[in-house]
Write a structure and sequence with these properties.
By secondary structure, the protein is α/β, with parallel strands linked by helices. Helix 29 links the parallel strand 23 and strand 24 (771-775). It is globular and about 85 Å long.
């Protein structure tokens, strides 16, 4: 029987080991050499490193499998993973203590629709590694250094589905850590709140942060993690900031300095601490000395009712949440036809309009008898999340459609719905328990809709009790008090309002309503809807499913917030109704946070379509413009300014990477139309200059490079993409052959930065005219200088700006 780390971590503080790559380099790992192969070729070296960490006091031995996946190792994968686990196990068994953590890092690919790796393909890649590690004897799975919440979800699902302990037949414990920047953002825009919501929904056993930052820079992010997380938090910082000395990567925080800050981090509430890049057994030894005796602060349950998208978290608290109801075929002939015609652009426009008009969440219902609802629901969720950063409500009574949507959803969704019928609860609760989500509980059961508030409350209590049997807490249930039309039941509104009050006051729970149901059959329905909406909010309504395009409903909403001190200094009300529209990204969200929406006015014309990432709309808009303007004028006057606006939003942190890339894709779709027109008229768009891009030798992580490529091409540069794992000689050869003025190099791992330095050295000898820009998670501006680069570009837009300086100056 394997050791039970979940019991041990409650009994005492546990310590992770530290860096691996830099220690392998000290023992002879060459630039560009694949470190995981040493599991088989030089197992004694790996066992010696594990042994040193165990002697230093570490408990969790991370296997040398960070980059072990089929993309990189093909048929060698299982042998490499098995050897990695056995090396760690040998050291643990010899020491008589410790746990073996199967290490799974990023694939190096960006998932669709932003990249070329399908979500299920990513799940399968991780499943192979997880299954091999579990069979070989791992005690837990550590998913680390994740910068994309979608890939993170794929890895967690794979670990749960394939990382099965042979002894118990149950999934191994799963710990997951991500890599934030200093602003607390993932590469793809996720925040601490949105990441925690996702991981808690997926029921990992511990979560946290690693890599990218030193311990000092991690402290503010840890504060936010501890504020929102009900799970134990793990912190593995780098040994400060890296630089190059004599061709080797060194870090600026020694063991004593590292341990001093780690003591503060442990005292703040981190349950598990260790190190990442640049840390050594000595760093861990000093950390254990200072932290082992500190009492463990086990996290208190936060009981937050929270949903999320890839980049936003919405919390159901005092301020009501607006759930846009327009993506629903009920009573909408145009929407029904769009579903029949498979017109996704229509659905996306409905979503964009609701976001622009103040929705915080979008309901998604695509149920029509004559279409494949499960396939359409999955596609609609994917497409909406490619252009909109709001959380979604998965609205279906079809179990297959619900599961397919929940599986591909990037975040923690709202699930509409369950009710008190046993059959329905048995279908929905297992899905919610596996994939995470906040469930809408309709207060009806086999006996129908109770006529009294008491009857509805009893059904609500039954739903909450049954959910608990599946490990779903009351904070993840929002009760629907059921809004019946007042024209057929004069007391219907009174019963609903009493139900809302009792959900709030008696159950201490959260409530939701489809508000517009109240007025069916009546003239000028918005009059009744607006009044009832205000009454419902005063009775404690937390989530309102309404039409955010309705001026009457939104006036009621903003007025209520101002009157109830939910809009400090009436700032939102003033910004909307004083004639001064809210600025970029300043829409206030329930529970805090801001919208990632593009600039004011986006959504109309070619510029708006590009900013929104609406490909078909961009193509249609440019076709219309070509009747009025010449092609080059459209590029210079319409397309480039739109891309610039999105780029500025990205730099300010109000537009996120997925939106940046989808905007680039929309611009590409528009340019294809322009290109055809130019070829027909004999016009030619000149390329600004040639840029060579490559991920350096030994590194297969090409996310950053691919993002840079897309943007540079949209700004009319000729980009020669040499791919990944590119030897220095190949970069030099292409630079010389094309007389390229600029080279861009990317690396993710510490072990591959020496390849970057060697590439720069060879470029200086053979192509001295070429400027070199570098980027990657392990780099800093100082580090870039020490390896001889001309510029450090921390993100894709910085690369575009530097290209402009070099080529257009």
């Amino acid at each position: 029987m394997r050791n039970d780390i979940l019991k041990e971590m409650k009994a005492r503080r546990l310590f992770c080991d530290g860096g691996m790559g830099s220690l392998l380099q000290e023992r002879g790992l060459k630039a560009g050499e694949l470190p995981e192969r040493w599991n088989i070729e030089r197992p004694q070296v790996l066992q010696d490193i594990h042994r040193a960490y165990l002697e230093a006091g570490a408990d969790i031995m991370t296997t040398n499998t960070f980059g072990a996946n089929r993309l990189k190792y093909g048929d060698e994968l299982e042998a490499i993973v098995e050897a990695g686990v056995k090396n760690a196990r040998a050291a643990v068994d010899e020491a008589g203590h410790g746990f073996v953590a199967l290490d799974m890092g990023p694939t190096g690919k960006l998932l669709k629709p932003l990249g070329d790796l399908d979500f299920e393909a990513a799940v399968e890649l991780y499943k192979e590694t997880a299954a091999a590690g579990a069979r070989a004897g791992a005690d837990l799975i550590l998913i680390e250094t994740m910068s994309d919440s979608y890939e993170l979800k794929a890895a967690v699902l794979a670990a749960r589905e394939a990382g099965i302990c042979p002894d118990t037949g149950k999934p191994l414990p799963v710990f997951a850590t991500v890599i934030y920047d200093e602003k607390g953002k993932l590469l793809t825009g996720g925040t601490v709140e949105s990441t925690v919501a996702l991981l808690e929904g997926l029921k990992v056993d511990a979560l946290g942060i690693n890599c990218g930052l030193g311990p000092v820079q991690m402290k503010p992010i840890l504060e936010e993690l501890l504020r929102v997380s009900s799970l134990p938090v793990l912190v593995n910082p780098n040994a400060g900031l890296p630089r190059s000395e004599g061709g080797k990567t060194v870090y600026d925080i020694n063991a004593a300095q590292f341990a001093e800050v780690m003591e503060e981090i442990a005292a703040m509430g981190a349950v598990i601490v260790g190190g990442c890049c640049g840390t050594t057994p000595e760093h861990i030894r000093e950390t254990v000395k200072r932290c082992a005796s500190l009492p463990v602060k086990w996290p208190e349950p936060k009981h937050r009712t929270v949903i999320s998208s890839y980049s936003q978290a919405v919390v159901f608290e005092r301020r009501p949440v607006i759930i846009g109801e327009r993506i629903n075929p009920t009573g909408k002939s145009k929407f029904k036809q769009a579903l029949r015609d498979h017109n996704m652009e229509y659905i996306l426009r409905e979503g964009v309009n609701q976001q622009d008009n103040g929705a915080h969440v979008l309901d998604v219902n695509v149920g029509l008898p004559e279409i494949d609802e499960a396939a359409m629901m999955e596609e609609a969720v994917r497409e909406l999340q490619s252009v909109i950063d709001l959380p979604l409500q998965i609205d279906t009574s079809n179990p297959e459609a619900m599961e397919r949507a929940l599986r591909v959803y990037n975040g923690k969704p709202l699930i509409n719905s369950v009710n008190g019928k046993e059959e329905v609860m048995e279908q929905v609760f297992p899905l919610a328990a596996k994939y995470g989500g906040v469930i809408v509980g309709l207060c009806l059961d086999e006996n129908g809709i109770p006529e009294t508030a008491e009857g509805r409350i009893q059904v609500g209590k039954k739903i909450i009790r049954r959910a608990a049997e599946y490990g779903i807490g009351p904070e993840d249930i929002i009760l629907d008090g059921l809004c019946m039309t007042v024209s057929s039941d004069s007391k219907g509104a009174l019963v609903t309002l009493e139900t809302l009050r009792r959900i709030r006051d008696e159950l201490g729970g959260k409530s939701i309503l489809g508000v517009s149901n109240i007025s069916f059959g009546l003239p000028q329905r918005e009059i009744i809807n607006g009044a009832f909406f205000t009454m419902a909010m005063e009775c404690g309504l937390n989530g309102a499913i309404i039409n955010p395009n309705s001026e009457a409903m939104m006036r009621a909403y903003y007025s209520f917030n101002a009157l109830m001190d939910l809009d400090p200094q009436c700032s939102e009300y003033i910004s909307i109704y004083s004639g001064q529209a809210a600025g970029l990204g300043q829409t206030i969200r329930p529970g805090g946070g801001q919208t990632g929406a593009p600039a004011q006015g986006a959504g109309t014309g070619l510029g708006g379509a590009i900013e929104r990432g609406l490909r078909e709309q961009a193509a249609e808009a440019v076709s219309a413009l070509l009747k009025e303007k010449d092609a080059l004028g459209i590029i210079n006057d319409e397309m480039i300014p739109a891309l610039d606006r999105v780029g500025k939003g990205f730099e300010k942190g109000t537009v996120f990477l997925p939106q940046l890339l989808m905007s680039a894709e929309a611009a590409k779709a528009a340019f294809e139309v322009i290109k055809s027109a130019m070829e027909g008229s004999g016009q030619v768009q000149e390329k600004k200059g040639t840029i060579i891009l490559a991920t350096v030798k030994g590194d297969i992580h090409d996310i950053g490079k691919n993002i840079v490529k897309v943007l540079l091409e949209n700004y009319s540069y000729e980009v020669i993409d040499l791919g990944k794992d590119v030897p220095p000689e190949r970069v030099v050869e292409e630079t010389v052959a094309r007389k390229a003025p600029l080279v861009g190099l990317s690396a993710l791992m510490t072990t591959t930065v020496p390849s970057m330095e060697e590439t720069i050295r060879q470029l200086r000898l053979s192509a001295p005219w070429a400027k070199v820009m570098v980027g990657g998670a392990v780099l800093t501006e100082e580090y870039a200088r020490t390896i001889g680069a001309d510029a450090y570009c921390r993100d894709a837009m910085a690369s575009v700006h530097y290209a402009g300086i070099v080529i257009e100056a």
